[in-house]
Amino acid sequence: MTNMLKDPAVLRELIMDHYKYPRNHELVEDDSYDSRHMASDSCIDDITVQSKIEDGIIKDIRFDGVACTICTASTSIMTELLKGKSIDEANVIIENYFNMMNEKTYDEDILEEAIAMMNVHRQANRIKCATIGWKAIKEMIDRK
Amino acid sequence: MLDVDKIKNDFPMFKNHPELVYLDNGATTFKPSCVIEMIKKYYESSSVNVERGDYLLSHEVSSAYEKARNTVAKFINARKDEEIVFTSGATDSLNMVAYGLIDKLNKDDVILLTYAEHASNILCWFDVAKRKGCKIDYIDLEPNGRMRLDTLIDKLNFYGNKTKVVSIAHISNVLGYKQDIKEIAKIVHQYGALLVVDGAQSVPHIKTDVQMLDIDFLAFSGHKMCGPTGIGILYGKYDLLDQLHPMRYGGGANSRFDINGNIILQITPHKFEAGTPNIAGALGLAAAIDYLNDIGMDNIEAYEQELKAYMIEKLSKLENIHIYNADTTSGIVAFNAIDVFAQDAGSYLSTKNICVRSGNHCAKILHNLIKTDQTCRASLYFYNTKADIDKFVAECANLNIENCINIFF
Ligand SMILES: Cc1ncc(COP(=O)(O)O)c(C=O)c1O
Fold first, then answer.
1. CA–CA distance, A42 with B68 (Å, rounded to integer)
2. I need a labelling partner for B392 at 20 to 30 A (CA). Which of A12, B17, B165, B335 fits?
3. Could you report the per-residue pLDDT of B340-364, keeping only the tens digit for each?
4. Chain A contacts of B373, Cβ < 8 Å?
């Protein structure tokens, strides 16, 4: 991991940037995409995640919806991180991400910018916000 | 005036969490020692069933359970104790009315609600309407949540005698507007419909007189009024209550049955209380009502209005805060910090030991009205203080995205 990603100020800035300017933040109307609407009563984030997975490769991920800083930033970072990855590579990254959320050991390096979410578990009620976008892509990968 | 310092001492939660500023009383309330002691006393010294045994203890518990019913009846000025059914909460009570009316509803009948109703006063009606082919329609609200009586009358005229039920909250859980139930009841009854009132946010905070208001059915929860969880009340005018179809059957609700399926049910209200009831809950609720009565519901209402006015005055000085319901009188303040998602604001406040609720407060469709998807809600009770509000307002001043993200570092 580069030292920059150890600096809280940088991580804070990352979250802010992904919240204000979320990446891949537009859904497409295209039948070749799978889609998951993630919303629940206990959490007010309400997002839809789309993915196009072909030949074992995640060709595209997009999302949209109304959500808090953590949900928006974590999903935005996820779309950038997993796009272009093979399903196998993506599964390893996702597993490490959930390990980080659950305070288990994880590989900092492969999480790249997603490391910005490393302290979310300190506000336990927000873990859901940081994971619903990731759960959506995981569900779509598992269905493939 | 209330002696709030003394009152705070009645609540062990404040002893265990002296730093807490609890402003989520719309969700649930803290319990005074007298309620906790009552429950403890039941389990420690009279832990037997009601109406089952021939022994003295059982008789005593049965009497205490029925006395609790009387305490509730007096609290809302019901005509008689038999108009009070113990339920598991407002949700249960509303479901009992909706499904209890199922035989009386026919295809194309109309059920009128408002956009401000809690999920618990919508979803059971949706299901009943679907099963019976009824139509659900909504009475318009003004932006502050006040029901527009002209549109109520328009709808009733439009549907004629097809309108069978009007079911509305006395006080909305999001905007806190207190509806003029007496006037609404008069109109609804002129058209021969039933008025069901969701009192979950009103009964704990204002004096409720079901006779004066002419309410047909009233639902409320014990836990929002210093009582235990898992206990609530369904009030119904005796004849109307008696005609409801019971949703549940079992021991305690029947007096006789045979193997051919002939059942003679107990008389109302017992026929609605199949199974061993929440005895500890009923006794705890009665203790909570005694406690509220000692303070006085008029005093509680006046003090909450004073606190609410104080909160609005302070909060409206903050440029980063938008208040949605400054002019409603109940102790509910719906607000957002500008450019801050409600959940982010809620989490920030929580790191400062301030409890508010962020979200859509179950009243999802209301947001068409106030044009936002989510709000924070601060809801007061009589044990809150101006000092609580000062702390809350001081932290509201700090609500911006940067601070909300900083809590993660
Ligand atoms: C207006 C209103 N109705 C009904 C309910 C449901 O109450 P309970 O969850 O206690 O059944 C609530 C609780 O939040 C409420 O605010």
1. 34
2. A12
3. 999 999 999 999 999 999 876 555 5
4. 44, 46, 66
Q: Smallest Cβ distance to B408: which of A43, A46, A119? A: A119
Within the 107-136 window of chain A, which residues sit less than 8 Å (CB to CB) from chain B?
117, 119-120, 122-123, 125-126, 129
Q: Do B343 and A126 touch (CB under 8 A)?
A: yes
Instruction: Please report, for residues A46, B32, B36, B174, B363, the alpha-carbon distance to residue B367 in angstroms, rounded to integers and kept in the order given.
Output: 14, 35, 38, 10, 8
Question: A129: nearest CA in chain B?
Answer: B343
DSSP B36: H
- Per-residue pLDDT at A70: 95
Vertex A135: Cα angle to A129 and A139 (nearest 5): 160
**Structural domain containing residue A98:** 3-142
How confident is the model at residue A2, as a pLDDT?
Answer: 59
B119, B342, B351: residue with CB nearest A44: B342
Strands B217-221 and B232-236, bridge-based pairing: antiparallel
Least Cα distance to B323 among B312, B309, B310 occurs for B312
Distance from CA of A73 to the nearest CA of B (A): 11
CATH of the domain at A45: 3.90.1010.10
Identity of residue A10? V
- Chain A residues inside the 8 Å CB shell of B409: 8, 11-12, 119
- Confirm or reject contact between A70 and chain B (CB < 8 A): yes
- Using a 10 angstrom Cβ sphere, with 0-12 exposed, 13-18 middle and 19 or more buried, the burial of residue B252 is middle
pLDDT tens figures, B139-193? 998 888 899 999 999 999 999 899 999 999 999 998 899 999 999 999 999 999 9
Is residue B385 within 8 A of residue B9, CB to CB? The reply is no
Domain count along chain A: 1
Ligand 1 centre from B91 Cα, in Å? 6
Query: Distance from the CA of A6 to the center of ligand 1, in angstroms?
Result: 45
Contact across the interface for B358 and A44, Cβ inside 8 Å: yes
Strand partners for B264:
B256
Beta-carbon separation of A19 and B359 below 8 A: no
Which residue is closest to B341 within chain A, CA to CA? A68
> Domains in chain B, start-ordered, CATH in brackets?
4-28+296-406 (3.90.1150.10), 35-293 (3.40.640.10)
Distance A72 CA to ligand 1 centre (A): 30
Element (H, E) at B254: strand B254-257
* pTM beyond 0.90, yes or no: yes
DSSP A42-57: TEEEEEEEEEEEETTE
